[in-house]
Amino acid sequence: MWHAASVQDWFAIGMGIVQGLTEFIPVSSTAHLRVFPELVNQPDPGVAFSAVIQLGTLAAVIAFYRRELFIEMPKGLLGKGSATDARLPWMIAVATLPIVVLGLSLKDYISTDFRALQVVASTLIIFGIVMWWADCKAAATRVFEAITYRDAMLIGLAQSLALVPGVSRSGSTIVCALLLGISRPAAAKFSFLLSIPAIGGAGIFELLEVWPELDSSQVRGLVLGTISAFISGYLAIGWLIRFLNNNRLVPFAGYRIVLGAALFIFIALGYVQA
C-alpha cells in the first residue's frame, strides 16, 4: 500500500541511503526505514516504497558479485566449474522457499501490525541479544565451499524471521550461519547472494502493484531512492565483508539494543508515534 501522497527529493534520497546501508549491515533496514520518517517529521511512505527502493540494493549485490553470478555459477551449472558453483543456485532456491511462502501468507500483517514501533523496538533488542550470544558462542570456522543444502534450508528459515521489522534479513541469516559453524565472511557472502531473489521478488511485486497509482513526482522519488540505495548498498557490502574478516558482530548487537531502548523511551515521551 502506498501511504504518502508524494515524497520530497531529499527525503527519497535519505530513505535510499538508509536502505542501502542497513540492508546489508545487520541492524534491520525495515526498522530504520520505519524510524527515519519519524525522526525527520515526514509521513511513512509505507511498505511499497521501501520494497521498491530495495531494487537498488538488489542491483548493488548483483554488481558486487557479478563474477560469481554471470561467470562462475553458469560454468558450474554447465559442468565446467567447481562443485560449489554448480550447487549454489539450487541452494539459494531452496533457502528462498520459506520467505516466499511466509511472505505471501503474512503480507497483510507485514504492512500493518508488524510495523508498529513497539514491535520494531522489541525485535531490535531481542535479536540484538541473540546476535551477541551467537557471535560469542559460534566456532565460525567452516568455509563457503562447505555450505550444504541442510545449511541453506536452515538459513532460509532464519531469513523468513526478517519479515518482522527489526529482526534484519542479513542479521538473521548471518547469525544462523554462525551457529552452523560457518565463518563470518562466508556467512555474509551467502547472506548477500541469498538476498537476490528475496529482494527482487518483493520489489518487483510491489512495483507492479503500485505502478498504476503513481504520478510523476512519486516515480521521481522512487528513482532517486533506488539510485541512492544502489550506491550506499554497494559500499556497505564491500565494507562489511572487509570488517568481518577481522571483527565480530558484537558492535552491531550493541547498537541494536541501544536503538531499541531509545525507541521505547521516545515512544513513552511522545517524541514519535508508535
The outline comes out as globular
- Which sheet architecture does the biggest sheet show? none
Helix content: over 70%
Would you list the SSEs in sequence order as H and E?
HHHHHHHHHHHH
Unreliable segments of 5+ consecutive residues? none
| SS elements, strand count | 0
Give the N-to-C terminal Cα separation: 19 Å
Report the β-strand fraction as a percent range: under 5%
Oligomer: single chain
Q: Report the average pLDDT across residues.
A: 90
Q: Count of DSSP helices?
A: 12
* Radius of gyration over all CA atoms, rounded: 18 Å
Structural class call reads: mainly alpha
How many domains, in number, for the residues?
1
Structure, described:
The chain is an all-alpha fold and 274 residues long. It has one domain. Helices cover 76% and strands 0% of the residues. It has helices spanning 9-24, 29-39, 46-64, 66-77, 83-105, 107-110, 117-137, 149-160, 169-179, 184-210, 216-246, 250-269. Helix 7 runs parallel beside helix 9, helix 9 runs antiparallel to helix 10 (184-210) and helix 10 runs antiparallel to helix 11 (216-246). It is globular.
